[in-house]
Amino acid sequence: MSKKPTFDPRLDIVFERFVDAPPQLVWEALTKPEHIKEWYMPKAWGRVSRCEMDPRPGGVFGIDIVVGDGQEVPNLGCILEAVPRERLVWTSMLFPGYRPAVFDDIPITAIMTLEPAGTGTRYVFTALHRNEADVAANQESGWKEGTDIALDQLVAHVASIR
Fold this sequence. Notes:
By secondary structure, the protein is of the alpha+beta class. The chain contains four helices and ten strands. Strands 1, 2, 3, 4, 5, 6, 9 and 10 form an eight-stranded antiparallel beta sheet that branches. A two-stranded antiparallel ribbon has the order 7-8. The longest helix is centred in the C-terminal third of the chain and has 19 residues, at 143-161. The protein starts with 11 loop residues before the first strand and ends with a helix.
C-alpha cells in the first residue's frame, strides 16, 4: 500500500486530531487493548466488551462493543499494514490471516497515520468506503458522530496516561 492513498471526498471520511503526546504514546493507545477499551466506544453509548489486537500484516483487529440496550456487536477485521509510531491500516472486509469476511455491516478500510507535530502528534484517521451509498449510510447511522466522540476520548485518554 502506498504511503499516501488518493483521497476521494465522495468515498472517504477523514478525521484529524492533534494529540499533545509523542507518537509512541499515541501508537500504544491505538494498539494496546487495555488502552483501546478506555477510548474506543463513546461512553454515553456503550462500552468495549472485548478487544484483541495483533498489529502486524494479517493480524487481528477485533473490538466487540456493548451498546446501550445490552446488545453485543462484534467487530472483526484484518491488519493490512503496521509501521509502529507511523501508520496502521486495517479493513473489515477481511478476517485475520486475510480470510474473506462475511459481514452484514458497512465495511471500511481504515488508514491511521501519526506524524510528529510540535510538542505532540498529528493523528489522521481516514475511512475508505466502497461507494457513496455506504458513505451516506455511515453518515446517517451515527457512525461519523460516534467516531468524532471516540477520537475526542482518545485525545483525553492519551493526556491521562502521559
